[in-house]
Amino acid sequence: MFEYAPAPESASIVDIKPSYGLFIDGQFVDGSGAFKTINPATEEPLAEVALADAGDVDKAVAAARKAFKKWSKLPGKERGKYLFRIARILQERSRELAVLESIDNGKPIKESRDVDLPLVAAHFFYYAGWADKLGYAGFGPDPKPIGVAGQVIPWNFPLLMLAWKIAPALACGNTVVLKPAETTPLTALLFAEICQQADLPPGVVNIVTGAGETGSALVNHPGVDKVAFTGSTEVGRMIARSVAGTNKKVTLELGGKAANIIFEDAPIDQAVEGIVNGIFFNQGHVCCAGSRLLVQESVAEEVLDSLKRRMATLRVGDPLDKNTDIGAINSAEQLSRIRALAEIGESEADRWSPPCELPAKGFWFAPTVFTGVTQAHRIAQEEIFGPVLSVLTFRTPAEAVEKANNTPYGLSAGVWTEKGSRILKIADKLRAGVVWANTFNKFDPTSPFGGYKESGYGREGGRHGLEAYLNV
Amino acid sequence: MTALLTSPTNATLRAFLHGLPGVDAVGLEQRAASLGTRSIKTTSKAYALDLALRMVDLTTLEGADTPGKVRSLCAKALRPDPSDPECPPVAAVCVYPSMVPVAAEALKGSKVHLASVATAFPSGQAPLQVKLDDTRAAVQAGADEIDMVISRGAFLAGDYLHVYEEIAAVREACGDAHLKVILETGELATYDNIRRASWLAMMAGAHFIKTSTGKVSPAATLPTTLLMLEAVRDYLDQTGTKIGVKPAGGIRTSKDAIKYLVTVNEIAGPGWLDPDWFRFGASTLLNDLLMQRAKLRTGHYSGPDYMTVD
To answer: How far apart are the C-alpha atoms of B209 and B150, rounded to whole Å?
Structure first.
């Protein structure tokens, strides 16, 4: 047998401090309390992180407001220079950031190294390029920034979501107060150090750490002109409610229950890869994950057999091992949610996982597939946000479209067929913000991303992503 | 498929081959690239190096080949690393038909196989009778493996029956010798064609499907080999017959060879991790494997002058 020996990426490249403060006005300052962030793969505490209360948030917003006066007047070319500088430092320190991301989040180093970090740098490079060309973006000759952006991001792609939020905001001349998720604050705090390293003027980027209350204080702060949120639909609804009646502009990027549609004329081997990448990438902690597989009945058996064979080769374990395909679930809370929904699934449909040994400590969930699922089942309706795939079948293209759209969400979808005309026809009928054809979970800073229906509103990325941060 | 094979026509072959699922080039290449990032260290590296070494078809296919050159190649095949008695021999020596008698003599009594290219290698542009005579001569002279080339022109023209019948005829001419069918993937141009050619060769009686002659660029690539490994995996599922795979040409480093072994392991499965089912057609690869092997054993690199040139 060809057993792969452990190939761990060294954790010594990153220096995790015992405690971290809040990043306000260019300085690290104490908060009003502290909480621990842990390594989800081992449950060991990593560091103490300052907790920001309403008063701390107030200071951060005040710092951002003060910095806005100068930053927004800076020529775009000069703002661009800062962003290019940040992008280059991100690249230079990418290994350090990738290791820290894997330690704090639980995602495999293969992904943080080859997906997250390259995309993070690419986002800064991309929006750095826009900073002096805003007059050509189609929003008038001299579009103005909005002001102070309050940004709340999730734990699934901590640094990438930070990049999606901060890069366009700064390029357009806004200043920001960002709150990372309470389970994954460390890379955002390392990013704060990078802002210092890049000599970014104090107050342009502020980072406040904490849980829901901190986020709520930020979103509801009267000094915030723009709210950007990525996370659950439930919290998104609360935010929409709380900003209603104010002048705040809002973009929300929320949940999803994407259909990945496999037609009988699909390139089957690559489609199976796409299914695996669609649902098991980042442990399925992906809002646009292809969590509902819709496969044409005539090839269902063949596709499922191939999928199961492929799943048996997935390597679950130490996120820092370079050969790990599936890492740890980010938190105990998320794990229990996945377990609860999987149990409901088991009462509704057939459950299957490949034989795989899970580590004793930490939060783990084996890649799982449910077959014989119907639209009426909860696992076909609710977002699980874990490595759990629901398989449904269809007979005709019309039925595929009907089932794909039969969800309150509308973030993404996938179409697999070798027939070009079918791709265009089906994509046109899918109510989803992103439709991937013969691929899945591909991201690019030049491409707008966002949802239909309960998956949120507004777009991030691309030229469209500028609109959210300009007074248009 | 059995009905198809009792009396195949060009129309039935075409219908079958064009009914195979398509190959998405971007997806295939991404899968190969991601397998290429597997990190194989320490014990698993030692295992992979030894396995790769045992899978080498040590090859010389030059117009300038002489009996002396072939004899020294055979000596190297038998004892790749004279300083290490633990070092296993390679799988086979691969030569032109005219050199088979020399090699047969040199390898006599060993377990190293003797492969000969045949059928007007590398172009295959000769009448069928010439190809069959070429094959029979090599087998009679002592080759127990024949590496034939398909008629790429006929394949590209859609004359699948011609290619099928040629392979079947060569297989018959091989007698007990094993038949490796070279698809020359670099000339087939598309992944869809490579998948079809793989199936055509397997259905016509190949024991092995082989990527390239080494005379055409690109020769073996990881995506191409991955695709052929999928073909043999699916063929076993559907027919119960197991076929081997041999990438040839362009694999020069241990690092590359290990990527291929990872791909074999994760695509076709551990059942193919054996010189009976997977081979490397290579010459310079062997010395790099020996150097990496010595590095693992001694902890330091010795340098190319410590490896025999042939």
So the answer is: 11
Q: Which of A2, A114, A273 is opposite residue B47, by nearest beta carbon?
A: A2
- A215 has a pLDDT exceeding 90: yes
Q: Is A287 among the residues known to form the active site? A: yes
Give the pLDDT confidence of B60-111 residue by residue, as tens digits: 999 999 999 999 999 999 999 998 999 999 999 999 999 999 999 999 999 9
The C-alpha atoms of residue A334 and residue A318 are separated, in whole angstroms, by: 18
A253 is catalytic: yes
Contacts across the A-B interface (CB distance below 8 Å): 67
What is the CATH classification number for the domain harbouring A52?
3.40.605.10
Complex prediction ipTM: 0.95
Please report residues of A whose CB lies closer than 8 A to that of B23.
267, 269-270
- Vertex B277 angle, CA B128 and A5, to 5°: 150
User: Is residue A253 within 8 Å of residue A240, measured between CB atoms?
Assistant: no
Residue with tokens 């088979």: B100
**Cβ proximity of A434 and A449 under 8 Å:** yes
CB burial of A321-341 (b: ≥16 within 10 Å; e: otherwise) equals: bbbbbbbbbbbeebbebbeeb
Please compute Rg for chain B using Cα positions. 19
Going from the C-alpha of B240 to that of each of A205, A419, B243, the distances in angstroms are 63, 32, 10
The SS3 assignment for A23 reads strand
Question: How much of chain B is in helix, strand and coil states, percent to nearest 5?
Answer: 55, 10, 35
Distance between CA atoms of A105 and A299, rounded to whole angstroms? 37
CATH, domain range B19-306: 3.20.20.70
Q: Which residues of A touch B38 (CB under 8 A)?
A: 4, 322-323
- pLDDT tens digit sequence for B1-47: 666 778 899 999 999 999 999 999 999 999 999 999 999 999 999 99
Q: Are residue A319 and residue A431 in the same domain, yes or no?
A: yes
Instruction: Tokens for B71, please give them.
Output: 């004899």
Helical spans, DSSP H, in A294-419: 297-311, 332-348, 378-381, 397-405
Q: Quick one: closest CA in A to B264, which residue?
A: A2
Structure tokens at A361: 């400590």
- For residues A267 and A407, state if they share a domain: yes
C-alpha span between A382 and A291 (Å, rounded)? 10
- For A2-14, the pLDDT digits (tens) are 999 999 999 999 9
> How high does pLDDT run on average in chain A?
97
User: What is chain A's Cα-based Rg?
Assistant: 22
Q: Are B33 and A279 in contact (CB under 8 A)?
A: no
Query: Is the bond preceding residue B122 a cis peptide, omega within 30 degrees?
Result: yes
- Are residues A242 and A270 part of one domain? no
Backbone angles phi, psi at A423, to 5 degrees: -55, -50
The SS3 call for residue B230 is helix
Give the structural domain span for A87.
11-254+452-467
